[in-house]
Design goal:
By secondary structure, this protein is mainly alpha-helical. The protein has one domain. Helix 3 packs across helix 6. The longest helix is centred in the last third of the chain and has 38 residues. The radius of gyration is 21 Å and the shape is globular.
Length: 169
């Protein structure tokens, strides 16, 4: 069972997360707009509390940021599924190219059949950018933390306290 979970945990999380994304797409426009309006008000209140002017923040921007963010989360899961930090970033993108292209198209196609919603090609591009950003940020972070751990292990293994960190790597 342990081997099964180790092998399949990211795939299961991706499937659950896709259900979340596609579930959002199945929400009728009136309800989706209320949700976006709620977040818009909360963000504007936060910015006002921080002494910042929020006149520029619109529901449209909140909705687009939500698209990008939810797909960046998917990019994170896809990167973890393919072993971020082990494979080079371009291999991660190659392994996920089907997801990067296919999943946003499905999302926007779903919206064609929901009351008050429409599929937007601009959202497909935004979603794809979110996935790629999520993959790149995750891979970069995993590489950074992996390099830091490797550096610490190398320092302990050499037993030389006089050498600089640059010489050890």
């Amino acid at each position: 069972m342990k081997t099964f979970m180790k092998k399949w945990k990211w795939k299961i999380l991706i499937l659950v997360y896709l259900c979340f994304i596609y579930g959002n797409s199945l929400t009728p426009a009136a309800i989706s707009s209320k949700e976006s309006g709620y977040f818009l008000a909360k963000i504007q209140d936060f910015l006002a509390g921080a002494g910042m002017d929020a006149w520029w923040l619109t529901e449209h921007l909140v909705r687009k940021a939500a698209h990008f963010t939810e797909y960046a989360g998917l990019g994170f899961l896809l990167a973890m599924n393919t072993g971020a930090g082990i494979a080079p970033v371009f291999c991660l993108l190659k392994g996920n190219v089907t997801a990067v292209l296919f999943m946003p198209f499905v999302d926007e196609t779903i919206q064609l059949f929901v009351e008050g919603r429409s599929g937007q090609i601009s959202d497909v591009w935004l979603d794809m950018a979110g996935i790629v950003t999520g993959i790149m940020v995750t891979a970069g972070f995993m590489k950074m933390t992996g390099a830091l751990k490797t550096g610490r292990k190398a320092a302990k293994g050499k037993g030389s306290g006089n050498r600089s960190r640059n010489n050890e790597l």
